[in-house]
Design goal:
14% of the residues lie in helices and 35% in strands. The protein has 153 residues and is of the alpha+beta class. It is built from 2 helices and 12 strands. The protein starts with 5 loop residues before the first strand and ends in a 5-residue tail after the last helix. Keywords: DNA-binding, Nucleus, Transcription, Transcription regulation. This is T-box domain-containing protein. One of its GO terms (cellular component) is nucleus.
């Protein structure tokens, strides 16, 4: 996934163990197309049927609260696909649809103690390839903005 989603946490209990997960959910029920002459995304109709929802467990989970306080958790290994038949655990998205990444921190799975963090500035439209260098530059700026924000729990 580009740009890579990176998060940091504070306010956690140092000795508590936490699992960190990510999923990506549709923002709306629309399909989009990019209008180059207007340099904007336009609604192009109703959304395709939603792809199967999958959770991505960070491969270093579980973390202690102390570990999460000291490091940035990077989701650089997350792989996205538009192949609904994927058998590799990739997150499945429909191209030309808007999505919202979500980060989940789970304190106790048995008791379902968790919090979900949503970064509205991370909403994106899934595409198979970016054709415009300006879009790639914008995504890099978005990543820098996300890293500069701080969510506490």
């Amino acid at each position: 996934m580009f740009p890579t989603l990176r998060v940091s946490f504070n306010g956690l209990r140092p000795d508590q163990r936490y699992a960190v997960l990510m999923d990506i959910v549709p923002v709306d029920n629309k399909r989009y197309r990019y209008a180059y002459h207007r340099s904007s995304w336009l609604v192009a109709g109703k959304a395709d049927p939603p792809a199967p929802c999958r959770l991505y467990l960070h491969p270093d989970s579980p973390f202690t609260g102390e570990q999460l306080r000291k490091q940035v958790v990077s989701f650089e290994k997350v792989k996205l696909t538009n192949n609904e038949m994927d058998k590799h655990g990739h997150l499945v998205l429909n191209s030309m649809h808007k999505y919202q990444p979500r980060i989940h921190i789970v304190k106790n799975l048995e008791q379902e103690l968790y919090k979900t963090f949503v970064y509205p500035e991370a909403i994106f439209t899934a595409v198979t390839a970016y054709q415009n260098q300006l879009v790639s530059h914008l995504l890099l700026l978005l990543l820098i903005f996300i890293l500069s924000t701080n969510k506490e729990w």
